[in-house]
Amino acid sequence: MVFPARPQVVVVGGGIRGSMFATTVLQHPDAVLVALCDPSPAVRDRNATTLGVPVHADVETMLSAHPDATAAIIATPDFAHRDVAVACASRGLDLLVEKPLATTTEDAEAIRAAAEESGSRVVVGFENRWNQKFLEVRDQLAQAAAGRVVAQVVNLNDTRWVPTEMLSWASKSSPAWFLMPHSLDLTMWLTGTHPVEVFARGTKRVLPELGVDTWDAVTASFAMSDGSTVVLNSSWVLPETAPSVFDFRYEVQTESSVYHFDISHDGVTRYDPDGISWLQFGVHERHGRLRGVPIDMASDFIAALNGEERDLPDAAYGCRITAAIEAVHASLATGLPQPL
Amino acid sequence: MVFPARPQVVVVGGGIRGSMFATTVLQHPDAVLVALCDPSPAVRDRNATTLGVPVHADVETMLSAHPDATAAIIATPDFAHRDVAVACASRGLDLLVEKPLATTTEDAEAIRAAAEESGSRVVVGFENRWNQKFLEVRDQLAQAAAGRVVAQVVNLNDTRWVPTEMLSWASKSSPAWFLMPHSLDLTMWLTGTHPVEVFARGTKRVLPELGVDTWDAVTASFAMSDGSTVVLNSSWVLPETAPSVFDFRYEVQTESSVYHFDISHDGVTRYDPDGISWLQFGVHERHGRLRGVPIDMASDFIAALNGEERDLPDAAYGCRITAAIEAVHASLATGLPQPL
Amino acid sequence: MVFPARPQVVVVGGGIRGSMFATTVLQHPDAVLVALCDPSPAVRDRNATTLGVPVHADVETMLSAHPDATAAIIATPDFAHRDVAVACASRGLDLLVEKPLATTTEDAEAIRAAAEESGSRVVVGFENRWNQKFLEVRDQLAQAAAGRVVAQVVNLNDTRWVPTEMLSWASKSSPAWFLMPHSLDLTMWLTGTHPVEVFARGTKRVLPELGVDTWDAVTASFAMSDGSTVVLNSSWVLPETAPSVFDFRYEVQTESSVYHFDISHDGVTRYDPDGISWLQFGVHERHGRLRGVPIDMASDFIAALNGEERDLPDAAYGCRITAAIEAVHASLATGLPQPL
Amino acid sequence: MVFPARPQVVVVGGGIRGSMFATTVLQHPDAVLVALCDPSPAVRDRNATTLGVPVHADVETMLSAHPDATAAIIATPDFAHRDVAVACASRGLDLLVEKPLATTTEDAEAIRAAAEESGSRVVVGFENRWNQKFLEVRDQLAQAAAGRVVAQVVNLNDTRWVPTEMLSWASKSSPAWFLMPHSLDLTMWLTGTHPVEVFARGTKRVLPELGVDTWDAVTASFAMSDGSTVVLNSSWVLPETAPSVFDFRYEVQTESSVYHFDISHDGVTRYDPDGISWLQFGVHERHGRLRGVPIDMASDFIAALNGEERDLPDAAYGCRITAAIEAVHASLATGLPQPL
Q1: What is the tally of helices (H) and strands (E) in chain D?
Q2: To probe the interface with C, which of D164, D229, D236, D260 has the most C CB atoms within 10 Å?
Q3: Does the ipTM surpass 0.90?
Q4: At what angle do helices C175-191 and C132-141 cross, to 10 degrees?
Q5: How far is D297 from chain A, CA to nearest CA, in Å?
């Protein structure tokens, strides 16, 4: 199969995720990595060395320098998606945007509008959809024997290292913004339903004392369109000694069955003099090539760009998730259920 | 230590729990089992044989026949506590009442009023307080190092066998009435806080089709007096192949720590040709005597009757729990948060 | 039931276990704690304060001072049972001896002989027999549906804290001497069989470097009298960060079923800033009284002394276990299977 | 990258594994599937339909019909590798042979000799080496911080469905022949050591009664070249209600650390009306292409055929494993340790 023109991809943001996506494109036979941009000189230097492509300080400079770019992967902080995504979409680039699409409905809709106007395709990076465990259960739930879903409960937490060390912008986010797009997406995608109302509560005590002015933990209760219920619990204050940085446990009850997922404990426990850890295999290297769930996601983005059929979460879906998480925060602020 | 008069105990209700409590009293050196009553002739016969004490058809007959009774254990169905408890309390008997105290605030308050008037002591059977796992963690949480509680999530579910086979009166109850008094009590007792508001959702689909007109599953979100949050999830529709009849998982997050309890999986798994089971050790016999959590509870009731100091949940506390679960159902009915 | 004379109990050894047993006797209504002996002045002082009974420096002095003693609990280091047990047995005292009865067949037989001559009763403290989990499975295995046992595998390990910190006499013991009496006893008692041959291997590398000249880890393969197999694995070098000091996992395969026990993980996990721990409930206090598996064992010893029927491991059985563990070490030394 | 000639691959055996490997080759861009052979007409028909390549009744016919074949994948029953592997190797075909290479040292050496004479490359399919969990831990164990290995214990069992239903040739195999090549390979490959002596025991009771004359369960104790110990436990009589067909738990103790693997429980539990299952993701399809551990293994075989560097288990290694498992059976027969 020969493609008249392989997608020419730029990456916006050179942190952990941006670098990983850039490497993925670089290693992919059906796409070309054109350039990367990041405001930090140190980050630019590091990526220039490892990737061997031009690096730029901002998206405008990059797009001007590379008018041949046809696609962009957006890996900036969550709250900073809008400007760069709109800039890319306005020039007609297809987009893979890290979840959530944006952290306000206004921003999300602006990205969607820009993409609609230019005809860009937008894919939102709900990467759990590339986890074979969820794929398999989604297939099983679609079969009649499972019956309809009754209730879902998702616990997705991080240790306090994430808001205090890993993210410089945690105070502009929350456990709800950072974690619930993942869990809410799964509840919708696994069972084919969507939320119609949300009620949320939270606690704000530990992180402010640690200098990060955001929620410690949020619990959100959703009514779904099919009459089932969804509970999402997300905390950002687990102790750093926890066996993995994230704690991800999911359960689905249907009319006939129950599924329990333990995603953070992936089968290998190490006890060493420093403590106990659950080894993680989400992204790993094999014969010099990255493998794993986000790599598969980026590969499907490239496949779609090359004309292959892929069922991918689009901008409208991204807007729906953003609206739902926005409503979580509205419920936290008002103490009342919020319609969706 | 010599007691001028050991408590003379009657038991109301001769089902699984009533029989167990009667046996407990019978085996206890510091109390006397006087009689038992139950409306079912078969149940009366069985208890007469195993216990060797008089059995009666109703509480009035029993109390008239045994004016020397000083205490009663109430083990009727949840919704049927009021009349028998009031009858006993009015005559000045001290009471151990199975949780919940009643299933309406009106009933619960009637019991409390009757007891207050006659000076009866009322103990409500929140038996998890006698589980050493919770006792130990309660002690740890009371220490400064744990910090204040941030969030609690309790999953307490039953297989559908409980509402469809075990309980004849399931349609007058719900997973919230049957299970949440346990879980709510623990959240309050472990951390020294109480609920000030509740919001709840539920699904009603499977059990009505199975002929039991009640909720399949309920999720309730509580705001607590100390600013922390509590989520209670309770379902009555787990498949009957589940490894234990109940599924009880509890987690507490504090400012410094996290505790995870797995109560239903008690360390022994059996794989046999019929399936997989987790052996349960809540109540067992040793050298002809019952042991276990509810036995310890009944023993502490007897100890208190004999003048020993025991910290036991009283009628006012029972009324508070009943009011909270009533509010869960009000929230289910109105779709709005309910103050407590 | 009135006893003409309650057992008058002395305790030999005032360490963790000796103190615990002394307290148990002190709190028991059907026995009298007479005295305790220990060579360490500090240990004596501590026990004198907490127990309020006479303390002595050695067993001879104690026995001379208390000629009324009728029973002894032996809680000295494993290798030091013989002299004190023989001293007590020779005077006709009934004995509860911590497992193993002794660490040479010669010592074990000497204790047995002394007891036989004087008519003393000897009970060896295989305390897992008082763990309800094993009691219940033993009952189930005795039923026809389980079929005969095919294979048993027992992992019973300690962190290196036990040989390097907890035991001053670890170099005179080994993971096989310290741990396998427990696991071997269970394999015999649960399934009603006994070993006829053993083959063992081990590694000696870590503990010698830490100054304790004994085996790091031993694996022993037993042929049982009924044709089934038993594998015992015991290590003394787990990292100190392990979630509990001991790691105890047991599996039994029968002709129809499989049982898996996880004894060290007792349902509660704590994550705190210092690490991860599994809370342990083997011994705990309730209303000022000790409870737990070794307390039940000591109580049954007292019950037996008072004439009640109890099925308890005796000196002959203790000799058999000692011979088996001795043969483990013989196999380690010779590289050959050892008949039993 | 252009290869002057892609490997032309034939597959010997069209069962579950043979079909899977054939599909893998068919889907691989760098290899050509030439033909498949199987003695069963039904199996041939099925593969002809799904694969669209010529199918033959035996290997000689196939090789004569396809003189251009350059490589063969051998997926016959374990005991039937020799003749077909020698036939292929004699013609100079490179081989991927399912583990174990053969079930007698004589057979294994014959394959090795044929391959050496013709210059064929032989790869033995120890597929766990393509499991990322083991790959990662192998890397960690190679680092100085882990210290040297002290002990390994591997439990690898199957439900009785495998010998009684899945394999028609189970009576010519055993749990040791079928399962221990996997576990022994891992112990050697993970830690860089090899066995120097083995002692084994087993039970033969359930399977003979079920009409399969082989061992129910075998336990083997290995002395390794570096002084560490290895215990392998393999049973073929787990109840069919077990949550997965295989039960695979592995632990490694080193001088500083412990690793626990639970391979059979891969994070998702399903409770449905038929029982409890752990979903398995070893092989799955994505966008019409197979993925998973054996697929990666076959791909690396193809990569090696195409000249890429791969570290693969060869015929000499396969002979060593076969000799070790043969010695397990010799120890079972003689009751004595066997040197290796």
Answers
A1: 11, 17
A2: D229
A3: yes
A4: 40
A5: 12
The pLDDT score that the predictor gives to residue A5 is 85
What would the pLDDT profile of B125-165 be if each residue is shown by its tens digit? 999 999 999 999 999 999 989 999 999 999 999 999 999 99
Distance, in Å, from the CA atom of D123 to the CA atom of D112, rounded to the nearest integer, reads 11
Tokens of B241: 């192949």
Task: Find residue B232's DSSP bridge partners.
Answer: B154, B220
In chain A (340 residues long), the average pLDDT of successive 10-residue segments reads 76 97 97 98 98 98 98 96 98 97 97 98 97 97 94 98 97 97 98 98 97 98 98 98 97 98 97 96 93 97 96 97 98 98
Axis crossing angle, helix B132-141 with helix B175-191, rounded to the nearest 10: 40
C-alpha gyration radius of chain A: 20
Q: Tell me which chain C residues have a C-beta less than 8 angstroms from the C-beta of D195.
A: none
Cα D52–Cα D54–Cα D60 angle in degrees, nearest 5: 155
What is the biggest distance separating any 2 CA atoms in chain C, rounded to whole angstroms?
58
- Is residue C266 within 8 A of residue C249, CB to CB? The reply is no
CA atoms of B136 and A217, how far apart (whole Å): 25
Chain B to chain D, count of Cβ pairs less than 8 Å apart?
32
A partners (3+ CB pairs within 8 A) are B, C, D
Domain ranges of chain A: 8-125+288-313, 129-280
Closest in D147, D150, D219 to C231, CB measured: D219
> Which residues of chain A have a CB within 8 Å of the CB of D300?
287
The reply to whether omega before B67 is within 30° of 0 (cis) is no
Contact A29, A329 (CB under 8 A): no
Instruction: Give residues with Cβ within 8 angstroms of A309, minimum separation 6.
Output: none
In the numeric block, which tokens belong to residue A260?
Answer: 């329990």
CA distance C174 to C159: 13
What is the bridge-based pairing of β-strands D122-125 and D149-158? unpaired
The pLDDT of residue D38 is: 98
Measured at the CA of A296, the angle between CA A293 and CA A301, to 5 degrees, comes to 130
For residue D4, is pLDDT > 70?
no
CATH number assigned to the domain with residue range A8-125+288-313, chosen from the 4 options 3.40.50.720, 1.20.1050.10, 1.10.287.110, 3.40.800.20: 3.40.50.720
* Alpha-carbon distance C30 to nearest alpha carbon in chain B (angstroms): 14
Q: Which residues contact C144 (CB under 8 A, 6 or more apart)?
A: none
Name the residue of chain C whose CA is nearest to D331's CA.
Answer: C337
**Terminal Cα-to-Cα distance of chain A (whole angstroms):** 45
Q: List the single residue in D132, D287, D296 with the smallest CB-CB distance to A281.
A: D132
The DSSP annotation for D35-59 comes to EEE-S-HHHHHHHHHHH-S-EESSH
C-beta separation of B106 from C252 below 8 A: no
Residue D3 confidence (pLDDT) above 70: no
Amino acid at D245: V
Topology, domain A129-280: Dihydrodipicolinate Reductase; domain 2 (3.30.360)
Q: Closest approach of chain B CAs to the CA of D45, in angstroms? A: 36
Contact by Cβ (8 Å): B59, B86: no
CA-CA distance, D155 to C131, in Å (whole number)? 26
Nearest to B151 among A147, A217, A231 (CB): A217
How many degrees, rounded to 5, is the angle at CA A250 between CA A249 and CA A255? 150
CB D228 within 8 A of CB D149: yes
Neighbouring C-beta atoms of residue B18, cutoff 10 Å: 22
Instruction: Determine what percent of chain D falls in helix, strand and coil, rounding each to the nearest 5.
Output: 40, 30, 30
* Bridge partners, D231 (sequence order): D153, D221
What is the nearest CA distance from A303 to chain D, expressed in angstroms?
A: 11
| pLDDT at position C150 | 98
User: Whose CA is closest to A114, among A126, A102, A98?
Assistant: A102
